[in-house]
Write a structure and sequence with these properties.
Elements: H1 3-16, H2 19-26, H3 30-44, E1 49-51, E2 56-58, H4 60-87, E3 92-98, H5 100-117, E4 121-127, E5 141-145, E6 153-161, E7 163-167, H6 169-175, E8 191-192, E9 198-204, E10 207-212, E11 218-219, H7 222-230, E12 236-239, H8 240-249, E13 253-255, E14 264-271, H9 278-290
Parallel strand pairs: 3-4, 3-5, 8-11
Antiparallel strand pairs: 1-2, 5-14, 6-14, 7-12, 7-13, 9-10
Amino acid sequence: MDKFRAMTTFVQIADAGSLTAAAWAMEASLPAVVRSLAAYEAALGVRLFNRTTRRISLTEEGRRHLASCRQLLAALHDAEAELKNDAAEPTGLLTITAPVLFGQMHVAPLVTRFVRQHRQLRCRLTLLDRVVNLLEEGIDVGIRIGHLDDSSLVALPLGHMRRVVVASPAWLREHGRPTHPNDLLSANCVRISDHTPTWGPFRDGHKTLKLHVSGNLEFNHIAPAVQACAAGAGFGQFLSYQVAPLLQSGDLETVLDGFEEAPRPIHVVYPHARLLPARSRAFIDFIRQELKGFAPGNDPP
């Protein structure tokens, strides 16, 4: 007996409400459907339907078994579709979101390479420094920095980054190197206007510190604030990827390293779904490989 076909026939009878309707839907003969059901019931050792000359209805065992059959058939369908998706060349529109500067520095070049590898695909990359609701805004894949609290998303780790306090060597020679986060309270700090003026958190033994800093320079974008710090305007607090090139060149130095919070994780996220389109699955696999273990200073792409 073909158990898969017998199980499919059983589900079709339950959905159609009669043997005749099931035979019509399956483009099979009525005797073939009757034989399949009888053989399946015999193999299981239970009666799945109560049958009279006028109607057919599920038994209690039939109702329980129907739910199991639906799950098994759906899982098989998904497995087959996944293989077809894996074999298929990605097509259609893939929408991606990432933080602005991280997206410019690391995601956009990867998206460009990905599209060049898959000529039938179109990609739209949206860079935003806010948490995007992927489902509501129709986004397929997102890159998130920091701890996640949205349980509706699947999150796969890419790496991590630090939040660091930096200044130029010239500034440190003139004003000295802080030895404790509280030293920033009396220092000139370059701030980001759409961010909170509170810096931190810093770890001081078992305590967590947050500081309300001040200064004579404020920007509404991160890039000019980084450049101002490199030019000797004061201290700045940034994510490590934002200042990695200037740290490597020696134009900036980190301070207060021993007081840093734990590194922040980076994830690629996407909505929970039983089946991902081939384009989403291919991009997720690609970016996980390209940014595997990402940490600024470890030769990121």
